[in-house]
Amino acid sequence: MANKISDIAVPVSLPFTLSLVGLIVAAISFVAGRSAGLGYNEVFITVLVGAVLAVGFAYALVSLFDTHRPAMIVSALLGALIGLSLGSLGGAVFGVIFGIIAAFMVFWVHYRQYRSGLPTYLSSNQVLWHYGFRVICGAIFVFLITPILVVIPLSFNAQDFFTFTPEMLRFDPAGYSLKHYQDFFTNNEWQRSFKNSLIIAPIATVISVSLGTLAAIGLSQSHVPARRAIMAILISPMIVPLIISATGMFFFYSDIGRFLEGTLGWNKNFVGYFKVVLAHSVLGIPFVIITVTATLVGFDRSLTRAAANMGAGPVTTFFKVQMPLILPGVISGGLFAFITSFDEVVVVLFIGSAGQKTLPWQMFTGLREQISPTILAVATILVAISIVLLTVVELLRRRSERLRGLSPG
Prior knowledge:
0% strand, globular, disordered N terminus, MetI-like fold
């Protein structure tokens, strides 16, 4: 007997298909109606009308077509006509997409394609949980990612608005512009804050990586006394609310700043950078410790003993033996420390001055004092940078697993 069902052409009963399609559309209509702020009576009517139309649509597709491809074509054309009848090119595009998905789902249910690739012994409840769990995860993902998906197209708005204009909804080229990005790259205030972030974040990252890596290696030794307590203290900046950490840093670094300026005669602006860099280093060290410690879990201690037996000193052993194997964890921790410093705004508000205004600080100021749409362009750029850095972290994680033998090469 085959272990998996790959191609099943035996359809389920038509009432089952129509009932399931009606329930799905009713649930979607309920969520959409409540999100639009409709009353319960209006939501009930929306759910009822949506379910009836979905059942009729599914019945027509199953009755007229034997395969999904011609049904998807007809459904896409129907969606495009409905969108165009509303006078919107964007509506036509969404109608095509929705029509294709709707027709595919109808045939996916009716011809049992939901069991394709699943073990044959799974019961109906197990299959339901298999897809229900994925729907829950998908809903959480949509909930988290939707704000980002809204910001990105708004950053190309040709008007100085934080909402979609009619031209944007019609996909009219006149409704889109790069002027907000141009303002970011030409405005002195934005460029000054961006340069400050590029100065502070890399230096803080280097300090965090250096101290965090040494701390992780030291705490990985079994003979270190009270290492659990030390580890808890070192990672406490991740746990303690940031506003509390910022308040404590304000009083601590204010005394240091007065000593450096008054006693040693350091430049005030340099002292400001010095304090912000140290504060961001403290926030980044826990991320480095955690990632490097996780990498050291699978580290073979016999390699360092073998290097010592061959005459290598501690420094040589570290750079020639340990560092190549824990490098993915070190770089991952460094990337997290960089993101933490680059996106941080609370601490720099407490201990920084106008000369150390970073990009997040400038964004905060732009929201509080002047509603500048340039913030949307900056947010999109930061999202792109974060995606690149997280992609690098994932690639390094996979490389670390391969080096430790946890995954095939």
